[in-house]
Design brief:
Helix content of chain A: 25-40%
Largest sheet of chain A: 7 strands, mixed
Number of strands of chain B: 2
CATH architecture of chain A: 3-Layer(aba) Sandwich
Strand order of the largest sheet of chain A: 1-11-10-4-9-8-7
Structural class of chain A: alpha/beta
Largest interface: A-B, 28 and 24 residues
Distance between the termini of chain A: 19 Å
Number of domains of chain B: 1
Order of helices and strands of chain B: HHEEHHHHHHHHHH
Number of domains of chain A: 1
Bound molecules: adenosine-5'-triphosphate, magnesium ion
Distance between the termini of chain B: 40 Å
CATH superfamily of chain A: P-loop containing nucleotide triphosphate hydrolases
Largest sheet of chain B: 2 strands, antiparallel
Shape of chain A: globular
CATH topology of chain B: MetI-like fold
Oligomer: heterodimer
Strand content of chain B: under 5%
Shape of chain B: flat
């Protein structure tokens, strides 16, 4: 594996990942991942289905803790703190590192309550209305919903629901947002809106996005990590990081032939 | 290209039509039996109200139920009030316990704990009610009710209510647990990803989302408490007057039915017909509750469907 980040030393690190493997019981889903991710950048994870992108991204905010028998080995440093240190409270981790899921999952409550829930949980109850407006504006949803904030969030369209989920995530002012295929359930127009949104959000947040869409990865990200699966001795397939570099290099001049094959659509 | 395309109906084989008939018959049998029951209840109840000895007015306003006395009084009020009273005590016991065990099971318990607790619940649900009845009379009454609540009689509403409550805990826990499990897991993930704790997620996200099922379980539990017979007959006593003191004996609709039918009341007498009036009264109460629970479940289910 080759990482070509030597020129980017001056950038602040958000995540420093060293030799991370994640397993479910005795099955190793992804192994030996080492990479650095940078502040106020968009890092994209690409790779064929089952290579462990979701598994890996979930270990960045300790959502894997919620999956019985999932185990993370190795070191994930977040701004200098080992996320898996015994002292670290996963609840606090998730307050700093937000997550947007593949399928929009608004709470069956009003639009306003979808935002205020997280605010209340995080004791950010001053200026609730302003915070709601700010979050919805940042998520490019304010104009569409400002007149019916008390409407049930489930009555929104899929794209609106996903932007609401982004809004409730940024409302609690995390430093980093993890997005696992946030556009896979959306049409091209809604997708475009969310991509534009990411370009604005990246000024304030660090973003990590999993996507199946090569164009999306090349359009939105500054850095790109390509994963693939390799068969292990027992016939199961374990994910590995193949190449990690800045997006432009990866899409114009990948250093690994596997990457080139995948990007050009000859595999995967 | 479409050479093998065949869109004609295949002929039904005889066995298949027999199976179909049998399935339909079973479904209709249930309906027919229900109609027959209601019909019997109704006709006999009408006989009762046409009896010169009783008036509908007396039935609904008199405060005694003494059909076997020399001068019988047929007032259903003490029976209804006893029934509701004991059911209410049962609800006070079973709603919180049932709901909290459901929340524990679905939100906090590990898989292994679940594996142990669920079967125990099922055993509790399978205990014959007559056992609960004697448990109430011979254990709860002397060891709890009479010890801690002075002035309690051997037969009392509290003890019967507690036992009925214990009996319906599994019903409430298991239906509420199903309701909580039916909430999409993505909601739980979404809540936890915002930095909320498991407790807040359980109470503020999962519980409201499962509310319809939980309310349905409460109503169903209540309706079972109203219809419960054995426990209240054994431990609740047969006090035929209007009584609001739970330390004393009461007289539920079900136990008065048992009582009249156990005695040698001759067929066709007023006292005998009174049974059916009570039957239809009870039937209407539980029927309304069941419809109501169904309505609630439907109404909220739509709201949370995705
Ligand atoms: N909860 C789980 N329990 C057990 N195995 C799991 C679990 N989640 C994922 N896996 C396994 O881990 C491997 C990686 O899965 P993961 O969902 O991380 O892949 P992915 O790269 O996100 O795929 P996709 O692109 O299809 O979303 C797969 O083999 C999958 O079967
Ligand atoms: Mg995935």
């Amino acid at each position: 594996m080759k990482t070509e980040l030597t020129t980017k030393k001056e950038l602040d690190h958000v995540f420093t990942v060293r030799d991370v493997s994640v397993s479910y019981g005795d099955f190793t889903a992804v192994k030996n991942v080492s990479m650095d991710m940078f502040k106020n950048n968009i890092t994209a994870f690409i790779g064929p289905s089952g290579c462990g992108k979701s598994t890996l991204i979930r270990s960045f905010n300790r959502m894997n803790d919620l999956i019985p028998n999932a185990a993370v080995n190795g070191e994930i440093n977040y701004q200098g703190i080992n996320l898996y240190d015994e002292e670290v409270d996963p609840v606090q981790v998730r307050r700093r590192i937000g997550m947007v899921f593949q399928k929009p999952n608004p709470f069956p409550k009003s639009i306003r309550e979808n935002i205020t829930f997280g605010l209340k949980v995080n004791n950010m109850t001053d200026n609730l209305d302003d915070r709601v407006e700010k979050a919805l504006t940042q998520a490019a949803l304010w104009d569409e919903v400002k007149n019916d904030l008390d409407k049930n969030a489930l009555d929104l369209s899929g794209g609106q629901q996903q932007r609401l989920c982004i809004a409730r995530t940024i409302a609690v002012e995390p430093d980093t947002i993890l997005m696992d295929e946030p556009c896979s359930a959306l049409d091209p127009v809604a997708t475009k809106k969310i991509e534009d949104l990411m370009q604005i959000l990246v000024k304030d947040f660090s973003i990590l996005i999993v996507t199946h869409n090569m164009q999306q990865a090349s359009r939105v990200s500054n850095y790109c990590a390509f994963f693939t699966t390799k068969a292990t001795d027992d016939g199961r397939r374990t994910g590995e990081l193949v190449e990690y570099s800045d997006t432009k290099t990866m899409f114009t001049n990948p250093s690994e032939s596997l990457t080139e094959e995948y990007i050009s659509g000859r595999f995967g | 290209m479409y050479k093998n395309l065949n869109l004609t109906k295949t002929k039904t084989k005889p066995l298949e039509s027999f199976v179909k008939f049998f399935i339909k018959f079973s479904a209709f049998a249930a309906i027919l039996i229900s109609i027959a029951i209601v019909f019997t209840l109704l006709t006999e109840a009408i006989n009762f109200f046409q009896d010169p000895e009783v008036t509908i007015r007396e039935y609904f306003t008199a405060t005694r139920w003494t059909p076997t006395f020399k001068n019988p009084v047929y007032g259903v009020l003490p029976l209804i009030s006893s029934t509701l009273y004991i059911a209410l005590i049962a609800c006070i016991i079973s709603f919180p316990l049932g709901l909290f065990s459901a929340i524990y099971l679905s939100e906090f318990a590990t898989r292994n704990t679940r594996k142990v607790i669920k079967p125990i619940m099922e055993i509790l649900a399978g205990v014959p009610t007559v056992v609960f009845g004697y448990f109430a009379l011979n254990w709860i009454t002397p060891n709890i009710v009479q010890r801690f609540i002075p002035g309690s009689g051997v037969f009392n509403a509290i003890s019967a209510g507690i036992a009925v409550g214990i009996m319906i805990i599994p019903t409430i826990a298991s239906i509420s647990d199903d309701a909580l499990n039916a909430v999409p897991k993505s909601l739980r993930m979404g809540s936890l990803a915002l930095g909320s704790t498991r407790r807040i997620t359980a109470l503020k996200i999962m519980l409201p989302a499962a509310l319809s099922g939980i309310i349905a379980s409460f109503i169903l539990g209540f309706s079972r408490a109203i219809g419960e017979t054995m426990i209240v007959t054994i431990a609740g006593g047969q006090y035929p007057e209007l009584n609001l003191d739970p330390r004393k004996a009461m007289y539920t609709i079900t136990s008065s039915i048992v009582n009249v039918s156990l005695g040698d009341t001759p067929h066709g007498t007023t006292a005998y017909n009174a049974l059916f009036a009570l039957g239809i009264t009870l039937f209407i109460m539980t029927f309304v509750l069941n419809i109501f629970s169904d309505y609630i479940a439907r109404k909220y289910r739509k709201e949370y469907e995705q």
